[in-house]
């Protein structure tokens, strides 16, 4: 399967991504409503309701199973892009379902029910885990960064920027730094453990642009000076 980004222009206009699926290949698209063009046998696309245990019980999640040979184009919302990751065996990373766009034949998707503490903090019931050999496509906002966890030296990552983290990771929602720093920053995950953490830079880039282009000096001062002003003053 070949994935080709058609438009690398301004993120405000979105992107178009073309998929070329060879004969005997199959790709599972988790946001089929974004498919805007398809060329191939009509029987090459089969949509079905997903059975995702413990997640979104009242919502209907539809997955498109697309088999080759065919070619289709998907439109991405403004600010989003698709990054393809290769799997070689079993991965320990847990993903938020909202960050997933596709996965290929040979890859198995499983769910992991979070413990009660993490459910209350993240407001999520489950995360998604992959195993097998093949590729997955994740939806990101901006550049994807990677950092390695340490069992004792914690990594602090903006909570809204996390894409995936190891299943073994220990998480604590917190702020850090001195008194002023902890008051105006967004909540961060304090993470320890083993393995890589994936996070995106786009959310913070838009926040920076908003602070410098849209807000008046008074609003920006209040956000930085008041306790947790960065959390409550948008």
UniProtKB/TrEMBL annotation:
SUPFAM superfamilies: TRAP-like. InterPro entries: AIM24 (IPR002838), AIM24_sf (IPR036983), Trp_RNA-bd_attenuator-like_dom (IPR016031). Coiled coil: none annotated. Gene3D superfamilies: Mitochondrial biogenesis AIM24. Signal peptide: none annotated. This is Biogenesis AIM24. It comes from Paenibacillus phytohabitans.
